[in-house]
Amino acid sequence: MSYPPPRYHGDDGEISAAFRPAGAPAELTVSNGTRTHYLATTASTGGEFGLYRVDMTPKAGGPSTHFHRTISESFFILDGTVRLYDGAQWVDATKGDFLYVPTGGLHAFRNESDEPASLLLLFAPGAPREEYFEKVGTVARMTDEERAEFFLEHDTYWVD
Q1: Which residues fall within 8 angstroms of residue 7, CB to CB, at 6 or more apart?
Q2: What would the pLDDT profile of 89-115 be if each residue is shown by its tens digit?
Q3: How far apart are CA 109 and CA 60, in angstroms?
Q4: What H or E segment, with its residue span, contains residue 134?
Q5: Which residues are CB-neighbours of 104 under 8 A, at least 6 positions away?
Q6: Is-contact 147 86, C-beta < 8 A?
Q7: Do the Cβ atoms of 95 and 75 come closer than 8 Å?
Q8: How far, in Å, CA of 99 to CA of 76, rounded?
Q9: Of 10, 122, 134, 137, most Cβ neighbours within 10 A?
Q10: Nearest to residue 83, comparing CAs of 99, 66, 67?
Q11: What does the pLDDT look like over 23-36, one tens digit per residue?
């Protein structure tokens, strides 16, 4: 395996880094109080990856088993206990635990504990997950056709 072809062709580098302080407010708070911080979006990384911090409330639940056809998803637990499904078994992941799910890999996650939990979600390559996060809470009000279109548009395929 080798490095990819150069994407920057300048001679001296450039000032282009983006800093986000730890205390920055969440971009999204859903009805159960779970907060999502947009650390690095597809737009800000030029499609290389998307990185999000999710602060889950106690008993927040989470998505059921699914897979993605175009993106991988990685989970890094910052605090608390998050139940992670790797396609074969559920594990109680705690601070410092990591799960990588390649494209097509079955997975799910949830907070079933009585305590809050926090994790990093990394999608690669980048995908417009912000719209997914912002609208997934409205799927119950969608028609079956709208719901199917929404999940197809956002590369989410549910497994019964």
Answers
A1: none
A2: 999 999 999 999 999 999 999 999 999
A3: 10
A4: helix 129-135
A5: 67, 68, 69
A6: no
A7: no
A8: 7
A9: 122
A10: 99
A11: 999 999 998 899 99
Q: Which of 24, 27, 23, 56 is nearest to 43 (CA)?
A: 27
> What is the SS3 assignment for 135?
helix
Six-digit token string for 73: 């998803």
Strands 72-79, 35-40: pairing is unpaired
Q: Which amino acid is at 32?
A: N
Angle at 143 between CA 140 and CA 144, to 5 degrees: 95
Which pTM value belongs to this model?
0.92
What structural domains does the chain harbor? Answer: 29-158 (2.60.120.10)
| Residue 13 one-letter amino acid | G
Query: What residue has token string 């150069």?
Result: 6
Give me the torsion for CA of 143, 144, 146, 149, rounded to 10°: 170
Task: Assign 3-state DSSP to the chain and report helix, strand, coil percentages, each to 5.
Answer: 15, 35, 50
